[in-house]
Design brief:
Rossmann fold; alpha/beta; 25% strand; 10 strands; four-stranded antiparallel β-sheet
């Protein structure tokens, strides 16, 4: 994937329209994601937040009926051009899913797997330790690296999936409701971890938890359903301003719980 020297934003959508078959799911998204910041995507169910998130690393390509028009610029290159390899896109723009999905392998092999298939030639032990430390999990598992990743608690499994993601050295980490299946203590650990990771990575997170968005993110994008039932980006800005002084009444109504 060749790159142009346009690096002002981590990733940028321009006039992005997303479809499932003939159905327009999300309409005319224009958004610029800042580097090494946390951007939260909020909005009512069914407004296209996760669809937009998956468009940023072409995960929607795995759904046969899904297609896109417009552009998603990463290092100045539209990732939807024909000469772009979606597998390479996903290496550079990683994804953490709502439900922890460790492989039925050892903790060590879970972390090493992505690096191995990408041809990593460095010291694997060091990479595994570095990634587990980066995911705030090393101290809990360092004496049990040969145990199954499935033996961990839900919160630990999610941090293992984050370790697996950062082991391949992405630029951007996409998170689709990463704490929604976790208890409050595990959720706070994930939130603390996100803020640590933002020192090295750009993070984009979909969340239904308004308090979480307010706590962890630097920027917030509010999506809503348009009159044609397609998702639209209603408002985007600095999180503190979105939550305390939104420009649109629909944003205020959603944040204050009047709908959604």
């Amino acid at each position: 994937m060749t790159e142009n020297n346009i690096n002002s934003y981590a990733i940028e959508a321009k006039d992005l329209n997303l479809y499932y078959g003939e159905t327009l799911a999300v309409r005319d998204v224009n958004i610029q994601i800042e580097k090494q910041k946390i951007t939260a995507m909020i909005g009512p169910s069914g407004c296209g937040k996760s669809t937009v998130l998956r468009a940023f690393n072409r995960m929607n390509d795995l759904i046969p009926s899904a297609h896109a028009n417009g552009s998603v610029l990463y290092h100045g290159k539209n990732i939807y051009e024909e000469d772009v390899d979606p597998v390479e896109v996903r290496r550079r723009i990683g994804m953490v899913f709502q439900k922890p999905n460790p492989f039925p392998k050892s903790i060590y092999d879970n972390v090493a797997w992505g690096a191995q298939i990408n041809g990593y030639t460095g010291n694997m032990d060091d990479l595994v330790e570095e990634s587990l430390r980066g995911a705030a999990l090393w101290n809990e598992v360092k004496d049990n690296l040969d145990k199954s990743g499935l033996s961990l608690s839900g919160g630990q499994q999610q941090r293992l999936c984050i370790a697996r993601t950062i082991a391949v050295k992405p630029d951007i980490i996409l998170m689709d409701e990463p704490a929604s299946a976790l208890d409050p203590i595990a959720t706070l650990k994930i939130e603390d971890l996100m803020q640590e990771l933002a020192k090295d990575f750009t993070i984009i997170v979909v969340t239904h938890n308004m308090q979480q968005a307010a706590r962890v993110s630097n920027f917030t994008a509010f999506f809503n359903l348009g009159e044609d039932y397609a998702g639209v980006l209603e408002e985007y800005g600095v999180t503190a301003e979105i939550f305390t002084n939104p420009k649109k009444k629909t944003t205020e109504d959603y944040i204050t719980g009047r709908f959604g």
